[in-house]
Amino acid sequence: MPACWDYVVRTSGELWDWLAECRLGFTRPVAARVLGYDSGDAHDESLRGRNLPPFTLLRDWVYVVLLLEREERGEPTLHRWARRRKGDPAMYYRFVKRVTRLPWREVKKRGSLWARREACRMWGPYLAPSLPPSLPPSLPPSLPTRGEPGKHDSKES
User: Are 5 and 116 in contact (CB under 8 A)?
Assistant: First the structure.
C-alpha cells in the first residue's frame, strides 16, 4: 500500500467514514455541513492544515479506489451495486471516467493498486513533505518508460 494512502486514511478521521459510503451526492458543501464546518472553504482549510488534499480531489480518488476494491473482492459489479442503492449506474461510470479519464473497463483492468498510485500522484503536492507522493511505476525494469532509452540502447556493440 502506498505510504500516502495509509497517511490519508489515518489523517482524514471522521471524513473517511463518510467517504467509505461512495455516495456521489456527498459534495463539498454537504461534507462541510455534516462535519460541522461553516463552508466548504473552511473544511478545505482544515484538510490543508492536516496536509491533506482538497475535499473534492480526495473524495474522487477515494471513491474510485473503493469501487475497484469492491469488485476485486467479488462483491456485486458496479452496475448492480449502483442499482441496489437506487442509483443510476451511468452516473458512476461517468464519474470514474471524469476522475481517471479512462472508461470503467480499463480502470478495472488496471486495478485498485494502480488507482491508489494515481491517487497518491494527484495528492502528492498536498501531503506532508516527508511522505513519498507515490510508488514507482509498475513497469518491469526492463521496459523503458516514455522518453527513456531502453536497456538495449545503452549496450556497446
Answer: yes
DSSP one-letter code for 87: -
Rounded Cα gap, residues 59 and 52, in angstroms: 11
Q: For residue 87, what pLDDT is reported?
A: 82
pLDDT single digits (tens) 10-36: 888 888 888 888 787 888 999 999 999
> Could you tell me which of 101, 92, 90, 14 has the C-alpha nearest to residue 55?
14
Around Cβ 19, how many Cβ atoms within 10 Å?
A: 22
For the question of whether the overall pTM of this predicted structure is more than 0.85, the answer is: no
Q: What string of DSSP letters covers 93-153?
A: HHHHHHHHSS-HHHHHHHHHHHHHHHHHHHHGGGS-TTS-SSPPPSS-TTSPPTTS--HHH
Q: Kindly state the cell numbers that stand for 151.
A: 536497456
Query: Residue range 38-42: average pLDDT?
Result: 92
Say what the alpha-carbon torsion angle 106, 1, 123, 60 is, to the nearest 10 degrees: 50
Q: How far is CA 105 from the centre of its chain?
A: 16
Average pLDDT over residues 125-143: 52
Give the per-residue SS3 of 4-21: HHHHHHHHCCHHHHHHCC
